[in-house]
Design goal:
Elements lengths: L3 H9 L5 H14 L3 H13 L1
Helix pairs in contact: 1-2
């Protein structure tokens, strides 16, 4: 199963600038949010 770290490793190859690296980081965070954020999202849905 692919996760955040795998997303970064697979995407970072050949990156030449900080801006590109930041975009990859943002994209991978969108695909694989931190566990704490996922927990908060589930709790909000359950309390609605």
């Amino acid at each position: 199963m692919m996760g955040y770290d795998d997303c970064i490793i697979r995407s970072i190859n050949g990156v030449q600038s900080d801006l590109e690296a930041q975009e990859i980081k943002r994209s991978c965070l969108n695909k694989f949010p931190p566990v704490e954020e996922q927990k908060n999202t589930v709790e909000k849905k359950e309390n609605s």
